[in-house]
Write a structure and sequence with these properties.
This protein is 0% helix and 58% strand. The protein is built from no helices and five strands. The protein is mainly beta.
Amino acid sequence: MMKKFIVLGITLLLPLSEALAAEIGLGVEGEAQFNPYKSYKTDYSLIPYLGYDNKIVYLDGTEAGVYLVNDDKNEL
């Protein structure tokens, strides 16, 4: 049984001007894969993180999408 643990997550939020009303996040995501068997080594991996959200489209690490409805009470 292989377990995955997130070992590092650093996010720096840089809000843009009020006219754009967007947020940008930069950082690093990492994980360590531990194996219960002695003959297997632990694998480590790092990937860059980029986050962007302007209330119309978003990018969050490895996910991206479009808001169909996004107002004060609803988000889809």
